[in-house]
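A student in our group prepared the protein record below, which I am reviewing. Here is the record exactly as it was handed to me.
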Amino acid sequence: MAIESTNSLKTLAINILGKFLTHKDANSKYCSLFMLKKVLNFDINAVGKHKAMIMDCLKENDSSIKQLALDLTYLISNESNVKAIVKELLNYLLSTNDSDFLKELTLKICLIVDKHAPSRRWYVDTVTKVLTLAGNYIKEESISLLIHLVCSTPDLKSYALHKLYFSL
């Protein structure tokens, strides 16, 4: 990646790094995630093709692998894959009970939603779901952003009120 080479050669290198994510060895997964994070600037689409394998690393027992996988998931999220990524992260939110990781996970979900939400209603729905599932771990900034969005959008006030009421 550091030397001048063709784009196809760089894509091949990224694909080889992606294959290391399927290994059972934790060191291979960690090194692969670390390098994929470093080469993200070269070709984000090639790294994004390994989204499923990256997100599978969130199920690992090793906290450093989970953290790298979460960081990489955040970095590869965009408008076209935001719904799928957030759905997977919400499913993972239900299955984990590591309180330190839950704080980071809820933060990343809220950041992804804030950055790439396809609509304001989807934004309200998703942040409300995060509040329902992990309200104790959500940061105040995320709640403030939701309140600001609802207050600044008159036609969203009634919808958000109903959504929050039924969530209670």
About this structure: DSSP finds ten helices and no strands in the chain. The chain has a mean pLDDT of 90. Residues 82-168 form one domain.
